[in-house]
Amino acid sequence: DWTPDAFVDTTVASLKEQIGDERVILGLSGGVDSSVAAMLLHKAIGSQLHCIFVNNGLLRKNEFSSVLEQYKGMGLNVKGVDASARFLDALAGESDPEKKRKAIGRVFIEVFDDESQLVENATWLAQGTIYPDVIESVSATGGPSATIKSHHNVGGLPDYMKLKIVEPLKMLFKDEVRRVGKSMGMDASILGRHPFPGPGLAIRILGDITAEKVSILQEVDAIFIDGLKKSGLYDKVWQAGAMLLPVNSVGVMGDERTYEKCVALRAVESTDGMTADWVNLPYEFLQKVSNDIINKVKGVNRVVYDISSKPPATIEWE
Ligand code: XMP
């Protein structure tokens, strides 16, 4: 019978043997898979593991600094790289969803490659690939696990891709990854985190991206997600987030008419993201969140709730 404790013991032992005294690079995303993969390697080889956590400027509010601190608290040898400006520059003026994804993927590879080269004598690249990623190579684009995949040892590719690949979670499903993390004592705030797309808020800001739009959406998203947590709803939802729409609408504030932005909130139930149902969140909850957003976030005067299921509506709006 498979148990997480036994998996940790055998995997740590085989990683030790496989890697010996060599150095390993791993890209942390803040998500469950890369975090658990890092923890297993940390147990096996300690500071021979060099983690890189890139801020693409499109993460949730405060996520980069708080998750980085959390990683350090776990004892990981991690370097935080704030490349926000580089990503925003590459995205400037771009409205096409796929071109936005490509630009983010390209800059990620550039940044990761630069950082990898600073780790002298590294011979391995670790990835948090899990079994569904292996069987379904179409999956995501833009994030560490998607952009890196296994194109190693091929000429003309970034240097870090010439590294040997180690994927300790390759045979596991998501729920098993969580159980492995739990058996290593990892925090529920990491293991229970909702999925978040590699391109981040860039695909939740419809149209072109500016620093101001990112900051508006971060505020809106934080109110929604904190609200879900405070109401005990966060763990009942598979994924949630907010979309900043390319629409201004008329509102009133005091005697003044306003003409400001509209946001859409989305919360879905799913098992794998392939299909999804919108969640019937309580009206009282939506009412409070909507009031908070409109009162606290400057530039937003209207909130709508997305009641579309997948298919045909995707989870993200881009
Ligand atoms: P959709 O919008 O296709 O999303 O219903 C299904 C799941 O995939 C995530 N998603 C992405 N993840 N890069 C990623 O890493 C992407 O470009 C991307 N697009 C969608 C989405 O958040 C959901 O969990």
Automatic annotation (TrEMBL):
Pathway recorded for this protein: Purine metabolism; GMP biosynthesis; GMP from XMP (L-Gln route): step 1/1
Keywords assigned: ATP-binding, Glutamine amidotransferase, GMP biosynthesis, Ligase, Nucleotide-binding, Purine biosynthesis
GO molecular function: GMP synthase (glutamine-hydrolyzing) activity
Binding site for ATP: S29, G30, G31, V32, D33, S34, S35
GMPS ATP-PPase domain: residues covered: 2-193
Reaction(s) catalysed by this chain's protein: XMP + L-glutamine + ATP + H2O = GMP + L-glutamate + AMP + diphosphate + 2 H(+)
EC number assigned by the record: 6.3.5.2
Major enzyme class: ligase
Subunit structure: Homodimer.
Job description of the protein: Catalyzes the synthesis of GMP from XMP.
Protein name in UniProt: GMP synthase [glutamine-hydrolyzing]
Source organism per UniProt: Croceitalea vernalis
Gene, per the UniProt record: guaA
Portion held of the full protein: 193 to 510 of 510
